[in-house]
Structures are given as structure tokens and as C-alpha cells.
Amino acid sequence: MSPVLLLLLALPPSSPTVAKPAELSGFARCEELAGRLPESEETARCFEETGEAPERTAEATARLRELLERHPGSPWPTLYLGYLDPTHAEALSRAALAGFIARRNAKGEVVARTNLHRLLYRAGRMEEAGIQAQRALAVAEASGQPEVIARGRILQARHLWILGKDLEQAYLMMRRTEGLLFPAGNYYVQRDCLNNLGNLSLDLGRYREGLDAFRRMADLAAAQGDRYAEANARYGMARAAHDANMELPDENARRQVANLARQALDAAVRAENRGVQAKAHFLLGVNSRGEERREHFNACLAAADTVRD
Fold first, then answer.
1. Contacts of 112 (CB under 8 A, 6+ apart)
2. What is the pLDDT of residue 6?
3. Do the Cβ atoms of 240 and 261 come closer than 8 Å?
4. What integer pLDDT is reported at residue 5 of this predicted model?
5. Cis before residue 183, ω within 30 degrees of 0?
6. What is the pLDDT of residue 289?
7. What pLDDT score does 250 carry?
8. Could you tell me if 115 and 82 are in contact, meaning their C-beta atoms sit under 8 angstroms apart?
9. Rounded CA gap, 152 and 159, in Å?
10. Cβ neighbours of residue 141 under 8 Å, at least 6 residues apart?
11. How far apart are the C-alpha atoms of 300 and 95, rounded to whole Å?
12. How far apart are CA 108 and CA 78, in angstroms?
């Protein structure tokens, strides 16, 4: 019997029951973490994840700012505040980066540079984004820490894939990175590695390898309950089968594409992943005939609610 349970059983009947930290949820759990580990990544991530729901974002932002008032310059709360405050995201990421550098925290520096890369890429500032990827890789390799090295390589490979250059180099980098992450490793880093590997494999015409990478990603995401990533991975599987069939058309292969696309669509609906819903309908339209094709293309347009889609 655990010491905590023995302690609770020893309390007199009139004593109030005190929830263990593991039983807390939402902001209560975050505040409990803040009391013990105010500057940790776990605490900052708790506030950010709790604030993902639109009705809680303002409160999560306010609580992170209060935490920073008590611990000025703390890099993890600063970084995660940037995820909730897109207006000041770049400034907050740069402030967090400076904090990690000052503390010689290699993981934090690579994570901050990864976020800066994302922001700069979305702003069309590709040269600056590339600098962040290069510096993150250098810091990661120098750290000697397997997970940090993997994060740096994943970012560099993603940047090369975005540019559409040195794809073979990026592919080999991801193959070397697998050994650092599997079978044991951080789920999110494993997921990003497989996503990179799948995309690079398809662009290099390695369709079977791409299908395998996305299947592994789908299984991994499903086991973690990450429905959004599972939908992305299942679409990747459908795209791998579709691209292979485009080179060597075959009726059985076409039916396989349609089956995988339906699985991706079902996963996307469960995850409310509108982007994958649009793309899955598009693949189903391409691989259907007659009125069914028209229905899928109409559904694709209805689900495509971003400029890119």
C-alpha cells in the first residue's frame, strides 16, 4: 500500500479529503504545479494546454502573465505564453530564446528556435527561418542529448523539405534520427520524425516507405489519443497509395486508395480536422466516378475554409 494511501486512511473521519496532485485537473492542476515547479516546462505547458479551448484562452494567458510577474524572465512560461498570444508571439519567442541561452538550456533553445522558425516561415521570411534551423541544429548536435539532437535534425529536415532542396540529405538525416527515438522516446518528437520521414519519402518516390512511416505515425497517434495527428497520418497513407497508383495505375490499387481515404476522412471528422477532411474528399473525388465524384468535390470545397486549402 502506498504511503499516501496509508496517510489518508489514518486521518480521522471528520477530516476533509484532500485531492492528490494526480487527481487535479484544469487550472487547479496547473496552479499546483506552479507552486512546486514555477519555472518548469511542465507547468507552462499545463497552462497553455488548458487554455487551448477558446473560452479558456484569456484566463490561461492571464495566469501565465501572473506567473511571469512572480518569476520575471523565466523562459518556459514566456515561450508558452507566446503560443496563446499570437500578437506578441515572435517577441515572446525571442525573449524566451534569450533566457534559454543565458541558462545554457539546449533543449529550451532548440524548442524556441523551432517556434521562431514556424513564425518566420508563416510570415514568408524564409532566409531568417533558415538561420534559426541551422543554429538549432548546431546547438542540438553540441548538446550530446539524443532527444535534443533529434529535435534539431527534425527542424533542419523540415526546412529543407519546405525549400524543396537536398531532400535526399534530409531523408537520410531522418533515417539516422529514428535510432535516437525508437522504440523509447518522446511521443511528440517521434511523431514529428515519422511525419517528416513520410513526406520526404513520398517526394523522393519511395511510396512504400512513405506508407509505412505514415502507418506507424497513425498507430502511434491513436495509442496516444492524438486524433488530429492520426487524421493527418491516415491522409498521408492515402496519399502514398494514390501517388504510387498514379505511376502504375491499377484498379485494385485505386480501390485501396479510396479505402484509405475514407479511413482518413472518418478520422478527420472525429478530430474536427477540416484540412484533412478537404483533402480526403479530394482524393475520394479523384478516385470515384459519376455523381459520387461530384459529391466529394463539393464536400471538398465546403470543408476547405482556409486560403491554402
1. 75, 79, 93, 96, 97, 100
2. 33
3. no
4. 35
5. yes
6. 87
7. 87
8. yes
9. 11
10. 149, 152
11. 41
12. 11
User: Chain centroid to CA 109: how far?
Assistant: 18
Contact 270, 226 (CB under 8 A): no
Nearest to 149 by CA among 185, 197, 124: 185
Cα distance between residue 68 and residue 74, in whole Å:
7
Over the chain (309 residues), what is each successive 10-residue block's mean pLDDT? 36 38 78 96 95 93 96 97 96 98 98 98 97 98 97 98 95 96 94 98 97 98 96 97 91 92 95 94 91 91 85
Q: What gap in Å lies between CA 49 and CA 280, rounded to an integer?
A: 28
Tell me the residue type at 79.
Answer: L
Cell numbers given for 189: 518528437
Residue 269: CB atoms within 10 Å: 16
**Of 226, 225, 307, 231, which is closest to residue 276 (Cα–Cα)?**
231
As a three-state string, the secondary structure of the chain is CCHHHHHHHHCCCCCCCCCCHHHCCHHHHHHHHHHHCCCCHHHHHHHHHHCCCHHHHHHHHHHHHHHHHHCCCCHHHHHHHHHHCHHHHHHHHHHHHHHHHHHCCHHHHHHHHHHHHHHHHHCCCHHHHHHHHHHHHHHHHHHCCHHHHHHHHHHHHHHHHHHCCCHHHHHHHHHHHHHHHCCCCCHHHHHHHHHHHHHHHHHCCCHHHHHHHHHHHHHHHHHHCCHHHHHHHHHHHHHHHHHHHHHCCCHHHHHHHHHHHHHHHHHHHHHCCHHHHHHHHHHHHHCCCHHHHHHHHHHHHHHCCCCCC
| Predicted model pTM | 0.85
